[in-house]
Write a structure and sequence with these properties.
Lipocalin, 43% strand, 1 helix, alpha+beta, eight-stranded antiparallel beta sheet, elongated
Amino acid sequence: MIRRERRRRFLQGAGIVLVALLGLRAWVGQPPPALDVTPPTLIGTWVTEDERYADRAFVISRDDLELHVGDGVVSYHAILSIQEVEEADHWAYRISYASPDGVAVLEVFLHADGILRLKNPNSVVWTRD
């Protein structure tokens, strides 16, 4: 009888742990919801003083993304969605936009001091012009 009771308690505990882990997996695996509007802190023309990117910039507006890719070439893209995640020392944004190849993504990290960094390369500092 004692063995049966222990087994029952073990199975109940294991079931609770399993349900909790499945719930956590479902919650963690969910992407953050898309924002309804582009955050004002992202809107503007972003430039860098890094010489490697002297002729490059990007412009984020409410609905569009302009990529200045050098040699006077500018590509225009409709913003499809923006996801926002608060991190310890910055806000992370995932901007999905229409491109000729389908959907592309620009990932940026906006710090409290107004500095923006791209996910790649993360070492380049971008500021609003």
